[in-house]
Amino acid sequence: MIEVNNLHKSFIDKKDKKNTVKALDGLSFTAKDGEITGILGPNGAGKTTCLRTLYGLLSADEGDVTVDGIEVAENPLAARAKLGIFPDKFGLYERLTAYEQIDYFASIHGMTGASKKQAIEQVLKDLDMEELAHRKTVGFSQGQRMKVTLAQSLVHQPQNFVLDEPTRGLDVMSTRILRNHLAKFKAKGHCILFSSHVMQEVAALCDRVIIVANGKLAAQGTPQELCDLAGEEHLEDAFVKLIGSDEGVAA
Amino acid sequence: MISSNFNAHMNQLKALILKEYREAFRDKRALMVALMMAFLAPIMIMVMSKIMIEKLVDEPPIYIKFTGAEFAPKLMSHLADNNLLNFVDVPEDEKNTWQQRNITIEIPQDYASDMAAGKTIKLHLQADFTDKAVKPPVRRINNAVREFSLSIGYKRLLLRGVDIRLLNPVKLIEQDTAKPDATFMLISMMLGIYLMLAAFMSGLSVAIDSSAGERERNVLEMLLCQPVSTLKIVLAKLIGASTIAVIGVVLVLVLTSLSVGFVDLTKIGATFSLDLSTAAVLLLLLLPICFFASACQLFVAFQTKSFKEAQSTVGMLIGIPAFVPFVVSMMDDRPEWLNWLPIAGQSMIIENIFKGLEVNWLAVFATSSVTIAITVALVLALAKKLKSEKVVMALS
């Protein structure tokens, strides 16, 4: 379970105080176990800043984030151990093979010996990538890269799984693999939080949607609830109405 | 509990280091740079010393016009041993020169009989003694003839049962306190600078690649989000880069000591040979430098905005190991604190080793400690910096 509580964060320009950007302005939400929670928001709404605070990379000016009850700001390493992270821009170590890369992240999460080996074999099988495993990742297609990244973030079976715009640049097949995997993960009772721009995907996949605008919570609920709330038939229209402008959709 | 905790930390660090090694040793370009430095070293040393030795110590042949050479075959062969040759054998291209210098020696007809009778034989050496070009040959002829004459004289006395030491009641032993030959100084200075450069250059591309390179390939953010302390990340990267640097330095030392064996440095007044113990001392001196260099490079590369910027900025760091020893060796009054500084301290010790002086172990210890202390400070500072928001914001 991930709880975000009254998060404030400003980026202060040291040279020009007027140039201060308020990225988060009292954002609060909860992502529950056994649910897929989607964060929707226009570009610059504070999604990435929120997630980076959640990873413990940035420290909030005010408010706190807890992962399974562990305060991120106080104990980032313990909180990160409970997280599986699928980052915004996923790069690979191109001189390592897929197996070595997954092994690397498994070891960082403290796995060793036979249990590590078994976990890696399992995740390779789940993602149907045994053939890729011993190839160097240089020259992998976008879909293959996604699989490696997914495998490395799930190899330690994290209770909480955070994805930052995971379907960007993926084709239909890869998106389906990802979706199926998320659904399986949810069924096992894990907590999944993911940010996205793609309305259909959010509508199809998420149990609850959180709409963020200007660093604040604009609305939350099931996709259907949000449509009802805005009095619109499609989530996209509801989204535009709820954030109160057309800006961001065009971007 | 504590030991299992420690094991967990070690396992994590081991995985981090293993990954750095895998990446470094699979990076053919980076390895080539490291090895190139090493393979160029012996070639440079060989070529430079060969040229200099030839210039300095070679006794060029001197061609003398002999008359009556056939009367004194033993004298002729002694002179030939000293590269004093008969004009009849002069090669075509030097014929004019020696014709002009016109050095003649006249050997009398009754050389053999006078020798047998123990009479003094008079050889006549004729040349224009005011001619500068003639002076060194004349000196060499003079020495050679005196040597020949003395050796016969000694034998005669020995045969009569006289201790030849009686002929030398006073003996002058010359000890040259002048600084070693300037050219030799140049070679040893260059070797010193070269070793420093090897320490800095060899790990360079690995250091840049594992810091700025990883950030550019979007893998650093992922790593920073993992449950691993930034100190471990920095340590792993430092160990990766400095291992390559150490390999580079060891290769330079091994190949140089092998190649020095082929040139006789003693001919130019060099008082050192790069034997095993000297090489070991040099390695001991350079090990902290390897770590220091990699720490500097990582520190700078992590602060730059892009891979390109990292390459050019870290490239400037290379100037330090080349510049500092040069300046230090030019200084006449060296302030005491210079001994303590990294690079400056080591380069002075290396200079002394090449001069053949005793190794000052206290200085070795002092400069190594300071170098290691600075390295540790750099690592801690970098680990702290990687936690800062500024570095995180620079990720994208």
TrEMBL record, chain A:
Residue stretches making up the ABC transporter domain: 2-239
Keywords: ATP-binding, Hydrolase, Nodulation, Nucleotide-binding, Transport
Pfam families xrefs: ABC_tran (PF00005)
Enzyme's top EC category: hydrolase
EC number annotated for this UniProt entry: 3.6.3.25
Superkingdom per UniProt: Bacteria
Molecular functions (GO terms): ATP binding; ATP hydrolysis activity
PANTHER family: ABC TRANSPORTER ATP-BINDING PROTEIN (PTHR42711), ABC TRANSPORTER ATP-BINDING PROTEIN NATA (PTHR42711:SF5)
Similarity comment: family membership: Belongs to the ABC transporter superfamily.
The protein's name in its UniProt record: Sulfate-transporting ATPase
Taxonomic source organism: Colwellia psychrerythraea (Vibrio psychroerythus)
TrEMBL record, chain B:
PANTHER family xref list: ABC TRANSPORTER PERMEASE, ABC TRANSPORTER PERMEASE PROTEIN NATB
Membrane-spanning intervals of the chain: 30-53, 184-208, 238-260, 280-302, 314-331, 361-383
Keywords: Membrane, Transmembrane, Transmembrane helix
GO CC field: membrane
Membrane topology label: Multi-pass membrane protein
Domain ABC-2 type transporter transmembrane: 31-382
Gene Ontology molecular functions: ABC-type transporter activity
Protein's recorded name: ABC-2 type transporter transmembrane domain-containing protein
Compartments it resides in: Membrane
Domain of life: Bacteria
Main localization of the protein described in the UniProt heading: membrane
